[in-house]
Amino acid sequence: xxxxxxxxxxxxxxxxxxxxxxxxxxxxxxxxxxxxxxxxxxxxxxxxxxxxxxxxxxxxxxxxxxxxxxxxxxxxxxxxxxxxxxxxxxxxxxxxxxxxxxxxxxxxxxxxxxxxxxxxxxxxxxxxxxxxxxxxxxxxxxxxxxxxxxxxxxxxxxxxxxxxxxxxxxxxxxxxxxxxxxxxxxxxxxxxxxxxxxxxxxxxxxxxxxxxxxxxxxxxxxxxxxxxxxxxxxxxxxxxxxxxxxxxxxxxxxxxxxxxxxxxxxxxxxxxxxxxxxxxxxxxxxxxxxxxxxxxxxxxxxxxxxxxxxxxxxxxxxxxxxxxxxxxxxxxxxxx
Amino acid sequence: xxxxxxxxxxxxxxxxxxxxxxxxxxxxxxxxxxxxxxxxxxxxxxxxxxxxxxxxxxxxxxxxxxxxxxxxxxxxxxxxxxxxxxxxxxxxxxxxxxxxxxxxxxxxxxxxxxxxxxxxxxxxxxxxxxxxxxxxxxxxxxxxxxxxxxxxxxxxxxxxxxxxxxxxxxxxxxxxxxxxxxxxxxxxxxxxxxxxxxxxxxxxxxxxxxxxxxxxxxxxxxxxxxxxxxxxxxxxxxxxxxxxxxxxxxxxxxxxxxxxxxxxxxxxxxxxxxxxxxxxxxxxxxxxxxxxxxxxxxxxxxxxxxxxxxxxxxxxxxxxxxxxxxxxxxxxxxxx
DNA sequence: TTGTAGGCGTTATCAA
DNA sequence: TTGATAACGCCTACAA
Lengths: 336, 336
Prior knowledge:
By secondary structure, the first copy, chain A, is of the alpha/beta class.
């Protein structure tokens, strides 16, 4: 840093004590005379003073930084949640962003970083994994964070011992399956995403549950990344097989979008040659054609809820888990 | 905040001085005996110590926070740049995110906030406007930030007196126009975005320049927001007119995507009924059909360049302005 | 209402 | 190598 104007300089210039200067620049309001107040304000303006937020945080023993950790800010799912969370954090705090690039170590690293930053709260969005050792370490780190007075909110599975916004992946995927069978689909494929991601697993299981309730089961399941390219690749692989299923469920929308690209690329058509369904209802869907059948999750609400819990002043007597249900929306991509 | 373990506690437990503890936990390495080092490390681990980054920043007189200010993190243009910037900031610093929701006051507010945070650098991405008063105020705030030792990098127009990553909007839009005429398009419309946004203006002007070099000019120009919905609305308006142009240029891709939706909605087809071109080449384009003609900007590179300049240690003798040229890419949406 | 002084958690200087 | 001790910039009883 360079030469910063300090409060002491402002005080000196205004001819008042440090304490008085502090009070007007920030203090508990109206306990300082109008004359002095003005002098201080003038001095601050002339000098171009800006309070040092670090020093304030040290002196006060707290900060108004909220940490947000997401796997990938380019993925619409996360950017919607982030934007919504931002909305509620912004008026009274600053947001520190961390992206893990979908790597677990990063997740852990950010918890530590945010703790070092004495962030007042931490919002961790993204799926938990089957790596129990990692989940345990993460939960421990989070417990320490909480113990030191911070608030933590998870968006995803309830595995961290923190307040959680919990999408009902399983139940909603099941609803989707039922609706699809209802619509007359007979054979199914699943683009299952990574086997290690709980979100992906839950959705696959829910979907399978729904099918089996109607005496069916997926004819084919392909695993891949939880991304657009993952969907593309998985669908390509699936289409190379002998018999294509009539309807393919991708465990999230970006994968479904990639899958549709794969279909198009082979000169096939959705839904005539193969129907496609996704999950999340990201805003991007407005512009995919044919319109994509999916499960609508109130993404923005989820972001706002998470942020609200994070910003809550209450020490939070009890851990809160907010279940969020999704709604199956049938659109053209699964028309028969 | 709650009860945090302090370095003093660690020192006491390890039976060493504060200074020694500080040295091992962070210090300039290997100036402390192995015995003591181990004792301190052990104590720190047992107590679950994490350094207080605020206190460190105060004591050191500098921080490693980099502020990133974007209009809207949901817009692919910005999220790509943000993600790329993140990539280079991450290894050695933390990123504080600000979204202005496309409001100027917010922009100004963030500069102040970042200054309060004693951010080591500030990256401001987004278009400048025709509001000269605001631009001047912003430039002043930025000058103060710089004067106090911070680094500022703008991505957009070179109006802030800061290091700048400057896309060649005008020249590239002109190239696009020439290419379109070359391809045989005769009549043109322009979805011009907001009249107050310099980026939008430059692109409109460049496009118009290109046309006039071929003895043509836009038959119709419609202004709207710089967003998907803005594009949708503007195109709707345009299609309501008597005679549609054969080719419509939207000043950015998200607008073009909205415009294509408007076309589709009226039962018309791109490019048969009306050709559409955009600008930016956001990743999302991979999945729009028909594929969209646009100007490719190296978005990720721009983000990385901005971050690199921001992270540079050098006091930066000279202000740097990096010009980035775009490349016109003709795709199906303007096929004749 | 105003000022004095001690403290917040670290780093850094200077002896030892 | 180690340890006192003075900063760092600000807040906040407590006293005046």
